[in-house]
Structures are given as structure tokens and as C-alpha cells.
């Protein structure tokens, strides 16, 4: 029988939800800083990093009847794409029918979000969307997240879910630029956020990003400078008293909270 995964307290997933679920592995987005790819290699879900952008969907995961007492984050090890949407929605329906609350985390594709919003209107109170938008700059997003939707599409998907009456939130972890751009992100997105916007640094860059590529090393150096302790403190001082702002562990460590 399929069961939810229990997140370790304080882990990346555990910061947001005590339970998680996936219907497969592999992610078309191919983010250069991906944490899930490293887990997939370590746990031998995939043979090596080069296989990560091949989506593998497991239809046997659709049937899930467990009921838990807190939020389920779904997905964590893949995204929602046209390739897996039908399986994703069938699984989501089962999770919701078992009276669970679901945190849907995605770099959202408009067609997928429209389908979910249109099909699950009756479950609005049990769904919280969290869309990852680390920058509004198309070129920067394309570099770090080459297979993901453009930021403009993600912003439009956020607005679609908000206008449809769903609970909405944003993850700006990792931020892909500096503190000024992060503040602009807050100001642009906050009108379509009902819950929170989470800011976090790009952590463990040297371990996660392929530094054999000179362009990656150069871009990582920008990130290190943009997200220096001094700049993170400037960001924190600017936003700390504003509503909806939340800080991920990667950033809390720097400002000492
Ligand atoms: S969207 Fe998430 S799982 Fe997919 S490649 Fe990017 S970081 Fe990895």
C-alpha cells in the first residue's frame, strides 16, 4: 500500500510540510542547483546526473488512501508537466478525497495550473499552491533553470490560481539575483499571494552546480557576491516587518533568527 513520506524535521521539505509524495522522478526543468537530482543519484533512483531530465512516472503511485493530520507536499522530486498531468491529477484527487491538505509546489506551467484549478475548484480550501520564482529576469532564469517555464508564465500562473480563489504562496528559494531584485520580486508578486513568500539563498553551490563549466563558475561567483552576508542582511532589514514574508533556513542562519 502506498504511504506518504515523512519529512525529517528541519529538512528542506520539513520546513514546509511534515509529509510528502511523488509519482515519479526526474525533472524537465533541469535546474543547475537541483537538490533532488543529488538525492536521486545517492539513492540510486537514477544511474547518474545526466539522466535527471528524463521524467519517469510510476502509475502504481496513483492509488493512495492514507489520511494524515497535516500538510502533504506533492510533488518534491519532479514537477507537474504535460507528460505527467493526467497521472498527477488522478493522484491528487485520491489524496484530497482522503481528506488531506496538499501543498502543490511547482515551477508552474500555465496549462497544468489551469487544468488543476479548473478541475479542483471544489477543493480550494484543501490546496495551497507554492510557485518557485527566484527572479523575474528571463535570461537569468533560463541560465539557472533551462527547462523551466519563463518567469512571466509562472507569474501568470500565480495570478490564475489567485483569481480562481485558491490559496497561493511563492518560493524565492533559491533567489537567483541580489537583494534589490528580491525586493522587486516581493513588490511584484505580493498582490497575488494570499499566504506567504519565502526567501532563501542558493546554498551548497559548489557541491550542486557543475563547476567544470566555466559559465557556471562565473554565474556562481555573481550569486556569492549578490548573496553575501552583508547583502542578505540588507534584504532582511528591508522586508522583515512586511506581511507575508518568510525566511528559509539558508537565510535565517545569516541573520541569526
Ligand atoms: S524544479 Fe526542483 S526538482 Fe526540478 S530540476 Fe529544478 S530544483 Fe530539481
Automatic annotation (TrEMBL):
InterPro entries: MJ0683-like, rSAM, rSAM_sf. Residues 21-170 form the Radical SAM core domain. Keywords: Iron, Iron-sulfur, Metal-binding. It comes from the Bacteria. PROSITE patterns: PROKAR_LIPOPROTEIN (PS51257). This is Radical SAM protein. It comes from Geomonas anaerohicana.
